[in-house]
Amino acid sequence: MKLLMHICCGPCTIYPLKELRTHGHEVTGLFYNPNIHPYQEYQKRRQTLNDYASKVLLNVIWPEGYLLEEFLRQAVFKEDERCTYCLHERLRYTAEIGIKERYDAFTTTLLCSKYQKHDLIREIGDEVSRKIGISFYYQDFRVGWSEGVKISREIGLYRQGYCGCIYSEKERYYKPPF
Q1: What SS3 state is found at 171?
Q2: Of 6, 23, 61, 135, which cross-links 105 as Cys (Cβ 3.0–4.6 Å)?
Q3: Cβ(5)–Cβ(17) under 8 Å?
Q4: Whole-angstrom Cα distance, residue 2 to residue 24?
Q5: 49-63, 70-84, 105-119, 137-151: which has the minimum mean pLDDT?
Q6: DSSP classification of residue 64
Q7: What are 95-128's pLDDT values in tens digits?
Q8: In sequence order, what E strands does the chain have?
Q9: 65 backbone φψ class: left, alpha, beta (φ>0; ψ -120 to 50)
Q10: For residue 75, what pLDDT band results from cuts at 50, 70 and 90?
C-alpha cells in the first residue's frame, strides 16, 4: 500500500516507519505541524526529522510556511478543545495531500506516543477518512514506543519534552510557586 504518514517528529517516526516497511508498505512522510511553538522548537524538530529521513531514505513532503497565527486563532480561548482542533487540522491536511497525490491511505506517527490522546486520534482519523474519501490506516504503534526512544537516544536524535504547542509547554514545565 502507498501510505502518506503525517510525522510529528523524528523520534516518533522510528518505530512506525520500521513497522510499516516490514509489512511491505511504501511510505512517504509529511511534516505538517502548525502547533509547534516557538519557531526555534519547530526548526529543531524539522531538522531532526530531515537528518533522520536522510539516514533511512524516507521521502518527506515539507509544506511551506509556518502557520503560527492560524493555530493560535483556533486555540485561544478554547484551550480545552485545542487538541481536537490540532489533531483534526493535521490529519485533514494529510488526507487532502494524500488524495491530491494519489496515496492509498494516510496515517500518523502520533499513534506511537504514549502521551497522545490515542482514541481521539483514531476517531478523528476515521472521521476525516469518511469526509475526504481516503482510507485512514490505523495501527497502535505504542507497543514500539520504548524501542523508538532507545534507538533515538542511541543515534543522538533531538528529543523534545512536550507535544509542541505553547499550552503543552506550559503544562510540562510551569510549576506554581506555592
Answers
A1: helix
A2: 135
A3: yes
A4: 9
A5: 70-84
A6: S
A7: 999 999 999 999 999 999 888 889 999 999 999 9
A8: 2-6, 26-30, 60-61, 105-108, 135-136
A9: left
A10: confident
φ/ψ of 7, rounded to 5, equals -125, 125
| CA distance to 20, 29, 64, 136, 153, per residue, from 159 (Å) | 22, 19, 23, 27, 8
Q: What is the pLDDT of residues 84-99, one digit of tens each?
A: 999 999 999 999 999 9
Residues 86 and 75 sit within 8 Å (Cβ to Cβ): yes
CA dihedral 18→141→166→76, nearest 10 degrees, is: 130
Which grid cell is 87? 489533531
pLDDT attached to residue 83: 85
Which domains are assigned to the chain? 2-173 (3.40.50.620)
* Chain mean position to CA 156: 20
Angle, vertex CA 142, rays to CA 87 and CA 64, nearest 5 = 35
Rounded distance between C-alpha atoms, residue 55 and residue 78, angstroms:
39
Could you give the CA distance from residue 154 to residue 151 in angstroms, rounded to a whole number? Answer: 5
Q: Which three cell numbers stand for residue 78?
A: 478554547
C-alpha cell at 49: 526529522
Burial of 176 (0-12, 13-18, 19+ CB in 10 A): exposed
